[in-house]
């Protein structure tokens, strides 16, 4: 157990929540709790005092001494973590985590849940737009046997106090897209975008969670073993202090998250598991490779075609290939292997991955040039078809070796 009033250490590595240790293994000071509520914050110094005061008052009434509040702050420039830390002496149930090397709403929530001692894990925003009084209804929904209790804006009695038409349209549009791509997940609740809910720890303990951006509930429903869900209506309040951190990036992250769940959870995920080959990741690697082909071909044309610079084929090919490798590394690190890259943070790690990727792909390039010349000179005298065959062979080589070497992936999915 942490010395009193000291910050919680920010856990690193994969986003995996442990099963609760049995009470006998816990000893006296590190007791199990009924409920752990995570409050993710970024630049909420104006709100955090009120949030902690209201939540503590409410939970002291509902489950006195049997809960903890965990503020997870991503090293806010306005020092929200410091304000929260200064409140710890007054609020014994309060814990504070300051993350300095990671950033993002949903990963912050999971890091908080990783440090939590509760059988029930909850999340609420740190700006009072999620009305705290709903917590007791969510808790009793869990008592009634729900695996997940969701505060919803889209059931009878729910709503949004003051969102612009654009934001309402975007939110509903995003939900619709999610229903098309992941009906089995988003179709289970009326407000899959809700950032205000509770889940029974056992439903997600032991799993490696891989959320992207804001939508943690989709990750819980998409990967967890969740049978019974109860929804409670609430009205999303107007923000009175500070600003929303939502930017266009949250929308691209959401799309990325949907595709990732689609490729790992659906039928593709099950087949991958069965055959022990990461189909979803290979599809993403292939799509990135395609963008590399575009870079490769465009540069090959600009450098070697008689109507352009007309440089020698091999020299042009090597330059075109290297740029394609750089393009592919960036997209693979950001998308195909994003979940693994997340666990290997920092420029040094990234440079190491790039150098390894480059080495593997350079070997792939040698294979590529060999195949290109073999096919062009002995099989098909068309440089572009020969080039496509060469790229296909080297892509399989690149995928498998990078999977095992550059990103050191051990899991199938
Ligand atoms: N630790 C951490 N790191 N916290 C963050 C980060 C981050 O990178 N970005 C935002 N937060 C915190 C904010 O400080 C706030 O407490 C909470 O996450 C929500 O952020 P807002 O920026 O206020 O989001 P919103 O109000 O526009 O949207 C919220 O409500 C929607 C409806 O439930 C979010 O919860 C959405 O996910 C949700 O759909
Ligand atoms: Mn908000």
What does this 3D model show about the protein?
With 413 residues, the protein is α/β, with parallel strands linked by helices. It is 51% helix and 12% strand. The protein contains 14 helices and eleven strands. The protein has helices at residues 48-62, 80-86, 105-115, 134-143, 165-181, 183-186, 216-223, 248-265, 267-275, 279-304, 313-336, 338-343, 347-379, 383-404, and strands at residues 15-16, 33-41, 67-73, 94-98, 118-123, 148-152, 159-160, 197-200, 208-209, 229-233, 235-236. Helix 2 (80-86) links the parallel strand 3 and strand 4 (94-98). Helix 10 packs across helix 14. The longest helix is centred in the C-terminal third of the chain and has 33 residues, at 347-379. The structure holds guanosine-5'-diphosphate-alpha-D-mannose and manganese (II) ion.
Order of helices and strands: EEHEHEHEHEEHHEEHEEHHHHHHH
Q: What gross morphology would you assign?
A: elongated
Q: Kindly provide the radius of gyration, computed on alpha-carbon positions and rounded to a whole number of angstroms.
A: 25 Å
**Largest beta-sheet details:** 7 strands, mixed
Structural class: alpha/beta
Let me know the average pLDDT.
88
Low-confidence runs of at least 5 consecutive residues: none
- Beta-strand portion reads 5-15%
Assembly annotation? single chain
Q: What is the rounded distance between the termini?
A: 34 Å
Order of strands, widest sheet: 4-3-2-5-8-6-10
Beta-strand segment tally: 11
Helix content: 40-55%
Count helical runs: 14
Hetero ligands = guanosine-5'-diphosphate-alpha-D-mannose, manganese (II) ion
């Amino acid at each position: 157990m942490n010395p009193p009033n000291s910050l919680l250490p920010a856990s690193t590595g994969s986003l995996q929540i442990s099963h609760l240790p049995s009470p006998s293994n816990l000893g006296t000071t590190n007791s199990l709790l009924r409920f752990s509520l995570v409050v993710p914050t970024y630049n909420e110094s104006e709100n955090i005092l009120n949030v902690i005061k209201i939540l503590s008052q409410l939970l002291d009434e509902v489950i006195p001494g049997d809960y903890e509040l965990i503020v997870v702050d991503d090293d806010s420039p306005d020092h929200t973590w410091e304000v929260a830390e200064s409140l710890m002496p007054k609020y014994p149930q309060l814990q504070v985590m300051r993350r300095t090397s990671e950033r993002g709403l949903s990963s912050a929530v999971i890091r908080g849940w990783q440090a939590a001692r509760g059988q029930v894990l909850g999340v609420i925003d740190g700006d009072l737009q999620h009305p705290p009084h709903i917590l007791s209804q969510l808790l009793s929904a869990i008592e009634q046997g729900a695996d997940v209790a969701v505060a919803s804006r889209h059931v009878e009695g729910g709503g949004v106090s003051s969102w612009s038409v654009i934001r309402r349209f975007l939110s509903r549009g995003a939900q619709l897209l999610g229903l098309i791509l992941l009906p089995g997940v988003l179709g289970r609740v009326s407000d899959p975008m809700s950032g205000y809910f509770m889940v029974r720890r056992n439903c997600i303990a032991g799993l490696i969670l891989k959320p992207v951006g804001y939508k943690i509930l989709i990750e819980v429903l998409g990967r967890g073993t969740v049978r019974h869900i109860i929804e409670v209506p609430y009205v999303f309040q107007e923000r009175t202090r500070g600003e929303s951190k939502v930017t266009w990036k949250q929308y691209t992250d959401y799309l990325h998250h949907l595709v990732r769940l689609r490729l790992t959870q659906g039928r593709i995920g099950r087949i991958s598991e069965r055959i022990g080959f990461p189909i979803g990741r290979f599809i993403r690697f292939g799509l990135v490779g395609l963008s590399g082909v575009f870079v490769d071909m465009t540069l090959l044309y600009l450098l070697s075609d008689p109507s352009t610079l007309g440089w020698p084929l091999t020299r042009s090919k090597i330059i075109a290939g290297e740029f394609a490798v750089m393009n592919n590394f960036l997209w693979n690190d950001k998308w195909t292997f994003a979940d693994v890259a997340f666990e290997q943070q920092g420029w040094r790690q990234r440079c190491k991955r790039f150098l390894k990727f480059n080495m593997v792909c350079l070997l792939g390039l040698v294979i590529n040039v060999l195949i290109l010349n073999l096919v062009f000179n002995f099989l098909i005298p068309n440089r572009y078809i020969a080039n496509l065959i060469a790229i296909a062979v080297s892509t399989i080589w690149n995928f498998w070796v990078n999977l095992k070497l550059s990103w050191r992936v051990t899991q199938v999915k």
